[in-house]
Amino acid sequence: MDAQALYKENKELKEEIEIFRKKQEYIDSGVLKTKQVYDIARYNAEKIITKAIEFVYDVKNDIENTLNKINANQNLFNKEVNEFLSRNEHFIIKDKAEIKNIADMVLKDIKI
Q: How far is residue 14's CA from residue 4's CA, in Å, rounded to a whole number?
């Protein structure tokens, strides 16, 4: 090989290396962005799960208290059940638009 051919091959290899370097930078940038999105999604999921668990325990405690009151005085059954339903009426939802509204409020609450 003469000097001209070596120079040309060297130049082509440098260009190829530059292409690989740019591809690697692009991949690294994509991985970083994906990790950031994952971290945000995980954080939001943890908040949603925590709120759901708190909600479930609050309802469980309310049910326990209502049952204890009924157990102590069975004559109060209707009164206690009606009060329980009244206290938890906002959780007994059948309207899809209202469910979406609540979901939107939760999502708005957890945004970073």
A: 15
Domain boundaries, the chain: 3-110
Using CA atoms, how far residue 112 sits from 9, 21, 41, 49, 96, in Å, is 52, 34, 10, 16, 26
What span, in angstroms and rounded, lies between the C-alpha atoms of 93 and 110? Answer: 22
Q: Is 54 within 8 Å of 109 (Cβ atoms)?
A: no
Q: Say if residues 43 and 68 touch (Cβ distance below 8 Å).
A: no
**Strand locations in the chain (E):** none
Reported as a pLDDT band with limits 50, 70 and 90, residue 22 is very high
Contact predicate 82/70, CB 8 Å: no
What is the spatial distance between Cα 23 and Cα 89, in angstroms, rounded to a whole number? Answer: 56
What are the structure tokens assigned to 1, written together? Answer: 């090989």
Can you tell me the distance from the alpha carbon of 31 to that of 90, in angstroms, rounded to the nearest whole number?
A: 42
This prediction's pTM? 0.59
